[in-house]
Amino acid sequence: MRILTHPEIARIESWESINLMAVAAANVILESVRENPEAMITYATGNTMVPVYEATETIVNETDIPFQRTRAAHLDEYWPANPDLDEFSFVRYLRDRVFKPLKIPLGQRFEIDGTAADPSEEALRYDEVLSRNPVALAILGIGPGGHIGFNERGTPFNSRTHFTRLSEETIRRDHDERRLSTPKTAITQGTANVLEADRILMVAFGSEKGGYLFEALYGLISSECPASALRTAGKKVTIIIDETAAGVLGAK
Ligand code: GLP
Question: Does ligand 1 come within 6 angstroms of the Cβ of 178?
Fold first, then answer.
């Protein structure tokens, strides 16, 4: 593992493989549960997080770190999305990959309802859930245009949970990479919600993510690159990446 130094971000770790990166990220999640067995954790979705949650589940099964008292929320959900029917639903992903494997009880899971008739009202409801349950750890991936959650380019840093239209680059990514016909709108935690967490963990691997990260870490701190907001709260941020992503950071 190699530590990359950055003027604003407290810790950036570059790992030799995606597996090692995933175990390191899993250990950050487990550490926050060890520190506070009732921790409220917001989980990111996406391909990046698949090995991280698999590693977390493996360690949990081998040790006695209980998630039963933790609370779990998430970053974003397509709208409309029905977790029982739609393969692309992030709630479906979380139930399958996080909530069930980590045995987080139903009453402690806070899901964004992608079937809500009024998505703006649902966003307000979710924002209140987050206000009542301060977040110990916010887990993030990074997406097209440096988006975090579905805070696309141009979303103000002070935004709270809201209903949003996806950017053309995100719609293209979903179409090309995920081969899914996803809705063009979503409900997402705002950047302000993310920044309120006690601790923030961002995970990324591969050269494409390295490019997004480069802009976030070395470009202007601006709502034009939502992930650059992490630098305004850098003391509580850990970024865990693989060496391919790190290579892009170093090479640019
Ligand atoms: C998605 C989600 C994010 C996710 C990011 C990265 O669009 N809105 O919550 O973190 O993009 O996804 P992936 O890891 O699949 O690249």
Answer: no
